Every structure is written in C-alpha cells, then in structure tokens.
Amino acid sequence: MQTATAVQRKAARPRADALRNRERIVNAAREIFVEHGSDVPLDDIARRAGVGNATLYRNFPDRDALVREVVCSVMDRMAQAAEQALAETGDAFEALERLVHVAADERISALCPMVSSAFDQSHPDLKAARERTEGLVDEVMDRARTAGQLRPDVGVGDVMVAVAQLSRPPAGLGCLKVDRFVHRHLQLFLDGLRAPARSALPGAATTMEDLRQA
C-alpha cells in the first residue's frame, strides 16, 4: 500500500521501467546514506543502483532532490506502519511498540542529520509527508495514553529522540555492527514509557516542533 503522498510524487512518471529505476536509486541512496552519510558522490549511488548517471540526474537534478525523496520515502513507510499498527492490533501500547521498532529498522537516526540539513524544509512533498507521519504517530500515542497504558508526560518528540539515540551511530559502517543491540535497548525504553510512571520526568513533554526549533 502507498500513501497518497507517495502516489502523488510518482504520478508524473507512469512508465514501469522508469518507476523501477527511480525506486532503485532511492533505495540505493538510503543504503549508502546510512553507511557513509549524505555527502557521498552521486555517481556512487548510481553505480550501486545499477543505473547510469544520466538516469539518476533525469530523476533527481541535484542532491537536495534525492535527499528529500529518501527522507519522504522513509516517512511514507513510517506512516504505513502506523496505519497498519492501528488497524491490526486492539492493544494500543502494542501498536506503539511495533511503530518504534519499525522506526529503528528504517534507520531514522541516519536520516535525522539530513532532515535538519539546508534543503528546502517547506517543500510540499516534505511538508505533506512530515505532517502525515507525525499525525499518525501522535494518534498511536494518544490511543495508548487514553487506554491508560502510556505515561502522560511524554510526547512524540521524546519518542523520536530516544529512537534516534538508541539506534546510533547515525552513519558509517559502524552502525551495521550494533543492530543486534538496538531492538533490545528499544524494548527497555518502551517498558519505561508504560503507565503508571515510576518517577516524574524533568521538564515538559517534547513535541516535534520543539525539536525543529532546538
């Protein structure tokens, strides 16, 4: 299933072979960004994707366009995971657990530096993907909070920061070596989110807007 945002971005490229090439480029870029950061030569991405440089530049005229599409594609999958969790489980906290583990598998820790980079934060594709994803994560957390399963003093920003930090390092080959620890540590964190809370947290619940303004 694809979100409306993903479909809109692909509406202008209906040919199946062109769509496959574009998806190969995005997948290759995501992998290599995780391994080496977002400053890798675009030629390296084309080589890993198995396409020519001309094909890459035809789809993505500059680095910003490619980085933006990678970030949007990850947020699209996060949104899909949130929708699926909400639809498939009657346990609100279980839905939150599933979403957090998906976020780690999507390696959002490696994407955080790119989200805060210099490219256009107001681009309509990025804005739509961000609003949809944040809204769905917020809905998952609201359900768990309403069910009395989630402590009331945490926000979406708290969860996203913890996922990013616990799945570090954000980029480089070392990030692949700590995968076996990530989900274990995330589960420890999730257990700490359960209500009733054992202690009071300092400060206020963190929102995504707090993170953007930090």
From TrEMBL:
PANTHER family according to UniProt: HTH-TYPE TRANSCRIPTIONAL REGULATOR BETI, HTH-TYPE TRANSCRIPTIONAL REGULATOR RUTR
Entry keywords, A to Z: DNA-binding, Transcription, Transcription regulation
Protein species of origin: Streptomyces shenzhenensis
Stored InterPro entries: Homeodomain-like_sf, HTH-type_TetR-like_transc_reg, HTH_TetR, Tet_transcr_reg_TetR-rel_C_sf, TetR_SbtR-like_C
Domain HTH tetR-type: residue ranges: 19-78
SUPFAM superfamilies cross-referenced by the UniProt entry: Homeodomain-like, Tetracyclin repressor-like, C-terminal domain
PROSITE patterns, sorted: HTH_TETR_2
DNA-binding residues: 41-60
One term of GO molecular function: transcription cis-regulatory region binding
Protein's name according to its UniProt entry: TetR family transcriptional regulator
Coiled-coil region: none
Superkingdom field: Bacteria
